[in-house]
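Comment thread on ticket #2218

A.B. wrote:
> Attaching the input chain for the structure job we discussed in standup.
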Amino acid sequence: VAKESSDTVLVDDNFASIVSGVEEGRREYDNISKFTRYLLSSNIGEIVAISGALLLNLPLILLPVQILWVNLVTDGVTALALGLEPAERDIMAQPPRDPNEPILSRRALLLILLIGLWMGGVMIYLFSQRLPMDLEQARTLAFSGIVVFEMVNILNFRSFRTPLLQTGILTNRWLVLALIATLILQALAVYNPLLQTALGTTALALSDWL
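C.D. wrote:
> Ran it. Output below, let me know if you need it in another format.
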């Protein structure tokens, strides 16, 4: 009866289990927040780039198959790896979270919007600068640019309170592997003849990547 009516059941007599449970719960909540903010900011960048280019009467900046590639192949792998982020060092020093607090505060929404606007704006600029030379190359530049920017953007959300160098670049090995795999896949999308045909891309020079 006690077990049925209780909110928490200890399966051993060690009260440290409660501490471990709270720490894991906080880690998972933080990672859900990081995952959500990363994907929203990156997708707003894509929306801004596509709609902004149309409003400026430019050709379609990304083809539908390229949008699918970004959202399923590149975004998906890194976002899943971000969900495996270890607990932040000061996670247990933080005060309890209000259970009614939304997962995205006004500040978070503003940050998401600003990052999205910046990413989308830069993509439009790169696309428009290369467009007079070649549409396919301009589109490939924007396509690869959004992928690289999103790979950098994910590093913004590894911690809410600690700079990246203090968090440690290698503390989430799954994310490091995901970033490397994503960049390899994007290189294949740009240089592999079969993927060039499927995705409508063309080879880029080293200066384009820089």
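A.B. wrote:
> Thanks. Noting for the ticket: The CA atoms of residues 27 and 116 lie 26 Å apart.
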